[in-house]
Every structure is written in C-alpha cells, then in structure tokens.
C-alpha cells in the first residue's frame, strides 16, 4: 500500500448566511477541507469522510515540514488502502464550530470585531451536513458515491441519508448510534462542567483575558478518554502497574501508570483544543436524535432513506457506542426494506477500535468500497 504523501488544506468562503436548526443564522463563514485522489470525468467517485469530536479535515496524508502529522484515518485512506484514493476522490471537511480552521468560537464576530467565544451559535449534526452540502455544490459534486463516518462522524453519515438522500449512493456508519444514551449525555455534561467551572473560563470569553481554561480541558479529556477505551484494553496496557517500586501513600501524587497516562492525555489536549469548541461539539452529540420528530420511532425516521444502501459496523467492547445501538439502526433499516450489511467486530480496543488497523474491520470496509468502486460511473 502506498502513502498519499504531503497534502494541503483548502479554504472555501461562504457569504450567504447558513440557517441553523436553532432558528439562528450563521453569517458569512469559512470551511477548511482537504481532498485526496482525483475526481473522475463523470464526477461520480466522490466519498465524503465526516470527522468525530476532536478530529478535523485532515483525514489522511502528511503536512510538509511537520513530523508525526499523519491524518487521523491515514491507515484507512490512501493508495491501495480500504478507501483507495486511486479509485475515489475523498473529501474531508472541518465542521463549523471547530478549532481547526473552519469558522468557530475563536474567529472574529463580524458585528463586534472580537472573538465569538460563547456567543457562537449552537450547531447541530444537521447544520454540519447542510454546510457540507454547500461545499459539495462549490466543488461541482451533485452526488456522493458514499459518505463515511465513525462515532460522531457516523451520525453525520446517517444524517446525510435523511437530509440529502438524493445526493448519496451509500452510507457507511461505523461505531455510532441513532442518539446518545442518558449515560453518554451524563459523561458529556460532567466534561462540560469541568470546563465551565474552571476559573479561567470567564463565561466562554477567556480569549479577552489572555488565558485558557486548561484545568477544565484536562479533566474533560480524561473523562472522555476513559470512555473511548475498554476495560480489557486498559487492563492489558496498564493493569495496576505503579510509577514507583513502593506505594507513596499520597492522595494527590501520581501512583499508578494509568493515572500518568490520563494526565498526559489531558495535558496534551489542553494545549491545542478550544474549550468553547468542546462545549459545542458535545452538545451536537447530545442533540442528535432523528427519531425525535417521529415520536421516537426510528423506523419511521429512516423511511426517508429508502433507496440507499448502508454498511454498519460496530465493535464488541465499545461500551460508549455499543453494538446494541448499531443493531437499532440495522433494525430500522430492515423495517424499511433498505439494503444493509452489518458487521460486528470482536475487538478488544473499545470505541477507539474504529481508528485502528484491525484486519477484519479493514477487510469489511475494503470489500464495501471495492463494491462501490465497481458501481461508480467512469
């Protein structure tokens, strides 16, 4: 398998306001994106990859002059890889509200000349999908061969079939859910409270104070990271390993290796991720619930996706987006006589499995995209 090599982000400006589900509008905005591969003459081989909470448009490839700059799904996307860029034109778009280039809380509010901060409007999965559709219009892509996403990205992929179904050939939804459980919403709320109660948060306008609520971000990341791992993977990697040969009998110092690991992850995250972005994206997760408009009937919600094809993948040890949630999606699709393939991968890695190079998982996606490639009009 080859490597994509160096890639370059692009930026598209939109002057027309974007209507949001909240009833608000986002004035002129920018979307940052990357593309890999070549769009064919029929413009029929495009695949949109939707990103999860702390990822971005940088799906694959590397940046010139930067070490360890591989895209977050570089093991999946590239020449000869399961999503083969010799066959497909792959697009990664950074969502609105992010801190990785697209318009978000760190950008200037056009009416005030100051950073949006907490005044940035609440955005939803549906808003992101509508913004992505506008970018595809600019790129001259009327229809996607497929839309692919994992976790929160999988929610976006599902939403594409419900909001712009005529523009999607196939949906590939990995390690995702039709909505968040109460437990998941609870985890998000604890993480948000850690940020909001940080003295350096200043009601979301911390930019003006020249500070960053790093303490809150650290705790939020630690909470989130625990939910992405399985008990088995944490046990295998860390167990009860100690930092020192003997107990320190301290309630505040690091004693166990797992504590050291979580603090490292929290420290790293707090240096590059925006606190307001974290609040926005976790709220978008909370709000996603396509069945809500149908009295909680998921089968009724997916009636709008008839005529599409779906591939749904879950992982046995993923307790944040468990296989049971994927099976809810599959049942709703089957109820509508929608063509769906389902793979439940026995993997020990928890929710993070969707980012890893498991040969069975990659085998499923390779077979899926090989089939799509044979159907694409040249």
Please tell me about this protein's structure:
With 378 residues, the chain is α/β, with parallel strands linked by helices. It is globular. Helix 3 (182-196) packs antiparallel against helix 7. A hairpin with a 5-residue loop joins strand 2 and strand 3 (25-26). The longest helix is centred in the last third of the chain and has 17 residues, at 359-375. It contains ten helices and twelve strands. The mean pLDDT is 95. The chain has an eight-stranded mixed β-sheet, with helices on both faces. It has a two-stranded antiparallel sheet with strand order 2-3. It has a two-stranded parallel ribbon with strand order 6-7. Helix content is 33%, strand content 15%.
Q: Give the domain tally.
A: 2
The CATH homologous superfamily of the largest domain is termed: Alpha/Beta hydrolase fold, catalytic domain
CA radius of gyration is 21 Å
Instruction: Give the termini distance in whole angstroms.
Output: 23 Å
- What is the strand tally? 12
Derived from helix and strand composition plus strand pairing, the structural class reads alpha/beta
CATH class annotation of the largest domain: Alpha Beta
> Biggest sheet, strands in spatial order?
1-4-8-5-9-10-11-12
- Low-pLDDT ranges: none
Helix content: 25-40%
Give the overall average pLDDT. 95
Number of helices: 10
Biggest sheet features: 8 strands, mixed
Shape: globular
Q: How much of the polypeptide forms β-strand, as a percent range?
A: 5-15%
Q: Could you state the order of secondary-structure elements as H and E?
A: EEEEEEEEHEHEHHHHHHEHEH
**Would you identify the CATH architecture of the largest domain?**
3-Layer(aba) Sandwich
Function: Transfers a succinyl group from succinyl-CoA to L-homoserine, forming succinyl-L-homoserine.
Family: Belongs to the AB hydrolase superfamily. MetX family.
Pfam families: Abhydrolase_1
Subunit structure: Homodimer.
């Amino acid at each position: 398998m080859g490597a994509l090599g160096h890639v370059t982000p692009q930026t598209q400006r939109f002057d027309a306001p974007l209507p949001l589900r909240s009833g608000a509008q986002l004035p002129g905005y920018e979307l940052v994106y990357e593309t890999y591969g070549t769009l064919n003459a029929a413009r029929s081989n495009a695949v949109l990859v939707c990103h999860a909470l702390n990822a971005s448009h940088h799906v694959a490839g590397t940046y010139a002059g930067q070490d360890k700059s591989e895209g977050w799904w570089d093991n999946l996307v590239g020449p000869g890889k399961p999503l083969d860029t010799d066959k497909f034109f792959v697009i990664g778009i950074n969502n609105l509200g992010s801190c990785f280039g697209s318009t978000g809380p760190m950008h200037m509010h056009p009416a005030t000349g100051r950073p949006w901060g907490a005044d940035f409007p609440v955005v939803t999965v549906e808003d992101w999908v509508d913004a992505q559709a506008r970018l595809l219009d600019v790129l001259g892509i009327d229809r996607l061969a497929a839309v692919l996403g994992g976790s929160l990205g999988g929610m976006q992929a599902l939403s594409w079939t419900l909001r712009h179904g005529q523009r999607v050939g196939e949906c590939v939804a990995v390690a995702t859910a039709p909505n968040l459980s109460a437990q998941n919403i609870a985890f998000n709320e604890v993480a948000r409270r850690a940020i909001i109660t940080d003295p350096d948060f200043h009601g979301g306008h911390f930019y003006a104070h020249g500070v960053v609520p790093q303490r809150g971000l650290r705790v939020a990341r630690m909470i989130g990271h625990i939910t992405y791992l399985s008990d088995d993977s944490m046990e295998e990697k860390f167990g009860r390993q100690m930092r020192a040969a003997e107990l320190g009998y301290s309630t505040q110092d690091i004693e166990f290796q797992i504590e050291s690991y979580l603090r490292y992850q929290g420290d790293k995250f707090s240096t590059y991720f925006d606190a307001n972005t974290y609040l926005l994206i976790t709220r978008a997760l909370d709000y996603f619930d396509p069945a809500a408009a149908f009295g909680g009937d998921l089968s009724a919600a997916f009636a709008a996706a008839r005529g599409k094809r779906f591939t749904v993948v879950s992982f046995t040890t993923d307790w944040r987006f468990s296989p049971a949630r994927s099976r809810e999606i599959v049942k709703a699709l089957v109820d509508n006589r929608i063509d769906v393939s389902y793979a439940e991968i026995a993997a020990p890695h928890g929710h993070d499995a969707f980012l890893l190079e498991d040969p069975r998982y990659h085998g499923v996606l390779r077979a899926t995209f090989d089939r799509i490639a044979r159907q694409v009009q040249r």
